[in-house]
């Protein structure tokens, strides 16, 4: 592979239209799935209230709308470089000189199952010069009357691989964000998380936190409770039209800061639960 192919291409900012939408419904909850646009949720509506920034509002950039899975890494990998099993690796630089949000958010996913209120999607990860490990990612969605559960997983193929998983929802700006993290990763001059963790600071944020309790968004008379089976969350609230609250299995630059190794055939999963209720405050 020649060095010219390693230059930044900023494809994370390239337009990505939603394409064909597949609707799931249960009670007053509606979810539109854009399998061809990175396996993302394009619309998320409860009692008619839209909770996500869509492709038109987000400017259609691939990283800027809906709720998409981040696999096999989440957030930025600094300069696209990391070491695994003692060997250096380089990832495509797709955003401001770094590798951001994985490989799945801009690739079409295959629909393995689609019912009225459930869906399963799959994505075979590449085995090439950029991502030499292969593997397969799976995405499961299940709606109930007031809840949505999304489960993202990745399974190593015939060789070991590193993995960090995440979800990146662009929520329309809430009236309130209820969030009590216990620790925060400080960011350096490049805006990337570092160690050791520190006490949380006040916002605005574009930071990774460790939080043990649920996170709640309040908007248009509704309360949306967010819960994950992992304790890492990235919160970005520096834009007036949206707030991103992103559950992750590890921090940004996780291949270096907190490496997680999958042996051949081993699986890593991340569950993201969203539950709606009326706001009584």
From TrEMBL:
Domain of life of the organism encoding this protein: Bacteria
Which SUPFAM superfamilies does the UniProt record give? Galactose mutarotase-like (SSF74650)
Q: Which InterPro entries match?
A: Aldose_1/G6P_1-epimerase (IPR008183), Gal_mutarotase_sf_dom (IPR011013), GH-type_carb-bd (IPR014718)
Could you tell me what this protein is called?
Aldose epimerase
GO molecular function annotations of the record: carbohydrate binding; isomerase activity
Matching Pfam families: Aldose_epim
| GO BP: any one term | carbohydrate metabolic process
């Amino acid at each position: 592979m020649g060095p010219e192919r390693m230059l930044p291409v900023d494809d994370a900012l390239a337009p990505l239209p939603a394409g064909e939408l597949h609707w799931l419904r249960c009670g007053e909850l509606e979810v539109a799935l854009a399998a061809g646009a990175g396996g993302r949720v394009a619309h998320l509506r409860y009692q008619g209230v839209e909770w996500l920034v869509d492709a038109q509002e987000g400017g259609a950039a691939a990283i800027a709308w809906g709720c998409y899975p981040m696999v096999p890494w989440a957030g930025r990998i600094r300069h696209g470089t990391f070491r695994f099993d003692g060997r250096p690796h380089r990832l495509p630089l797709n955003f401001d000189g770094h590798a951001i949000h994985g490989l799945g958010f801009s690739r079409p996913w295959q629909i393995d199952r689609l019912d009225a209120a459930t869906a399963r999607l799959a994505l075979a990860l590449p085995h090439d010069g950029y991502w030499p490990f292969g593997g397969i990612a799976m995405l499961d969605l299940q709606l109930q009357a007031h809840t949505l559960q999304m489960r993202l997983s990745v399974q190593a193929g015939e060789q070991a691989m590193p993995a960090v998983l995440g979800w990146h929802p662009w929520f329309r700006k809430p009236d309130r964000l209820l969030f009590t993290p216990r620790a925060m990763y400080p960011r350096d001059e490049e805006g990337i998380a570092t160690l050791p963790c520190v006490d949380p600071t006040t916002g605005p944020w574009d930071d990774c936190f460790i939080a043990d309790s649920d996170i709640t968004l309040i908007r248009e008379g509704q309360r949306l409770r967010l819960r994950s089976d992992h304790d890492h969350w990235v919160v970005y609230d520096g834009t007036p039209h949206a707030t991103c609250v992103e559950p992750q299995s590890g921090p940004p630059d996780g291949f270096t800061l907190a490496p997680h190794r999958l042996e051949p055939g081993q699986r890593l999963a991340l569950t993201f639960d969203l539950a709606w209720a009326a706001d009584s405050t």
